[in-house]
């Protein structure tokens, strides 16, 4: 019996490709490549410019930032434009009237109360001394309360006035002060108000001397009532400052025109946006590192979760990395073409190359996700003529071009279709270019538009040519079984398929039916249906070595197994998968096809010969002698081909296949193999097994549908019923 193959038998350089750390190393390599390839587009540009120098080209701002110096100047202007805030203190008038009344009351108490000595005034020897003491007392009291601005003449006049005159003077003076202070009195017009206060006195019952005293007291009492409000002024000035919008220098803003003299204001703007700063700025480097980390992290997570061969096959991951990096290299080289000064030359970038290769060799889902990353990275590569970090025009162009290639090739991935995909991409590129050019504020000339359209057309054509040229190298170097390669292998003109058809026609028909069943089942569970079909075509290639020992090829001949012992018959049957593997390897067939041929029986038991051996022999029969040595199916596709192979043979042997009978048989076969452990290594789920059973039943019901019974007259005429 054949020994089961073990991966430990492989040399170390083949085993290391399955090591889990290889994926981490690959993503680190990709991250280093991305960082080094984009750093030149991220490093801030600095200019060697001096004051009063003439600009040799237009200079635009690379960033959006605030011109803090200009903003502060405008805020200072707004603050200075705010006038001081004054407040009218109406209560001052009442306070000063009270002060006037206090003066008159003091004089009245000192001058008119002669019978009783006034506290603080000593009794004088003479009348003159007494007056002087009273005057000194009044001046002392007034100076302690406010000030001593009233003249002695005014105070003596009040002291000598009669009670009635004093009352009239008090009322008139208080009214004059109140009326005068009813208006706004500031420091500036205070003297004018005091000079005009005499107009408030229109009485003739007092002497001129008393009137002058009244005027002096009124002038003394009048003070400014329109006071500067510091708090309100500061508040309004702060509001005015806050209302000034920051002076922003926008990304792409023209700072200086070619031939313009660089004055101090322009020089400061260049300094603010960092074009004159030659000191080391770490932030762009940190930002790029974070962007690369984000891109690689998202890519690693997506490839890990995507249900494609890249998820577990490190060889396919290496292939993906190579395609990804090769595509970025073409984008980078195309971006350098902008330096030659030819209008629109950058749009010749064959961005669809990556999408074509990934769709054809790996999976459309991988291509779509990668297309987004190509657009993001490409928009950085092409930022030489852009004022910002990203050139969104090129980003949108590359995204649409890649999506177009993925969409067209996802329908069919024949090599001949790739060239047609190139023309389809060229058409989409032209539409994208026209739309992007027409959306500009400044319209381009027809010559410029024509150049852009020409380069956009060449982009799709070059991508197709490069994809066709590179694909054979990737397929041969990584053993990739692309859809186009599978289609070629499914052609009846293939030598091995022709060998099956000519030498074992029954096996060929069986393989075709198995292929139909397996393809439908694979598509139902999201697996590669085309691989299942082609693998089914070759899975029984080993039967060509001894075709007469297999029942589907025994036409009008005796069964040779009748002349052999059960053990000899079992050995012949068990050998056919491995005989087929030997032939497939001789013809250098893809590994996936070889694996299906080798694993389509797993370690199943040849029940017929096993039970026959037990009946014929009195000795104990070892079950292991009647089992295939394996290996068991390692993939879902191989497991599905195993099920389809058993189902087709079993249904073909049914005398009268009905939908109910077919369904019962299919479920029994799947259950038996599940209980026998044939699916243990294929990672197939119970839910998927249920979907597979349902799909195969539908396919078989369409194949073994009930025939139409013709009228009896046809039988009378000797016609056969279908």
From TrEMBL:
InterPro entries: HD/PDEase_dom, HD_domain, HDIG_dom, Metal-dep_PHydrolase_7TM_extra, Metal-dep_PHydrolase_7TM_intra, PgpH_phosphodiesterase. Keywords: Membrane, Transmembrane, Transmembrane helix. NCBIfam families: HDIG (TIGR00277). The chain crosses the membrane at residues 21-43, 283-303, 315-333, 339-359, 366-383, 389-409, 421-439, 451-474. Residues 503-659 form the HD/PDEase domain. SMART domains: HDc. This is Membrane protein. Pfam families: 7TM-7TMR_HD, 7TMR-HDED, HD.
